[in-house]
Write a structure and sequence with these properties.
With 260 residues, this protein is of the alpha/beta class. An eight-stranded mixed β-sheet has the order 1-2-4-3-5-6-9-10, with helices on both faces. A two-stranded antiparallel sheet has the order 7-8. The chain has one domain: Rossmann fold (3-Layer(aba) Sandwich), CATH 3.40.50.1820.
């Protein structure tokens, strides 16, 4: 059984340079690459299960932390979708070969969809064998954050460049920057057709307080391929990390392998 190895990848130049922490398992294809959520890291339950699942099947797998997250360098407050997308594409190009399945959770779902768009602009042959989007949050800065800011928060964004709000996922408050919100407008995907060029499977909890399941259903309208499936877990929350949720996640991965 292949051993997971640790790597570090420099992304960006000058003052924009940051070290991205990467873990990789060598194996066959299609490989899997884990794209984490906003303020999550690669040591989370789903990421570890994905790596273990791949390892047992002899498939290659990669997980990493965005800048400002987990083991990677850089400041979280400097993070934007464009910045994290740049890092994801760099990891994809440096540490993967052949067809890959993108497994994107929350923010990672948005990053996966943007990856598909950016890869189509290159001369690289289509290497996406499939996507599993878990509680995907495309356009969340504009769709799920900005409309709910109070007038006081909007004023704070303008005057100090960020707002701070409590979150159930950490003892530290969420820092939402003006740059994150403004950059989100440059990465919108729910404003047209998203041609991923591969099968897409969506896993969504119906009791998700952060990304309502209707947001995932809206995403389906922008995916033209007939090979799009959606699995709803009636009592599932945003994390979808319970044993029963993970069983469903692994079943969907098996289906993507069979149907790619």
């Amino acid at each position: 059984m292949a051993i997971e190895t640790r790597h570090s990848l420099k992304v960006g130049d000058g003052k924009h340079a940051r070290e991205i922490a990467v873990r990789k398992i060598d194996g066959g294809t299609p490989g899997l690459i884990w794209l984490g959520g906003y303020r999550s890291d690669m040591t989370g339950t789903k990421a570890r299960v994905i790596m273990d699942w791949s390892q047992k099947r002899g498939l290659s797998a990669v997980r990493f932390d965005y800048s400002g997250h987990g083991e990677s360098g850089g400041e979280f407050r400097e993070g934007t979708v464009s910045r994290w997308l740049e890092e994801t594409l760099a990891v994809f190009q440096e540490y993967t070969e052949g067809p890959q399945i993108l497994v994107g959770s929350s923010l990672g779902g948005w990053i996966a969809l943007r990856m598909a768009q950016e890869l189509k602009k290159t001369r690289i042959p289509n290497r996406l064998a499939g996507m599993l989007l878990i509680a995907p949050a495309p356009d969340f800065t504009i769709e799920l954050m900005e409309p709910y800011f109070s007038s006081a928060q909007l004023k704070e964004l303008e005057t100090q460049g960020y707002i701070s709000e409590a979150t159930e996922y950490s003892d530290e408050p969420n820092i939402i920057t003006k740059n994150l919100i403004e950059d989100g407008r440059n990465n919108l995907v729910l404003n047209g057709i998203i041609n991923t060029g591969c099968p897409v499977a969506i896993l969504q909890g119906m009791r998700d307080p952060d990304v309502p399941y209707k947001h995932a259903m809206k995403l389906i309208d922008h995916l033209p391929s007939a090979n799009v499936t959606m699995t709803l877990i009636k009592d599932g929350n945003h994390r979808l990390s319970r044993d029963q949720d993970l069983v469903v996640m692994k079943y969907i991965l098996e289906q993507l392998l069979e149907n790619r």
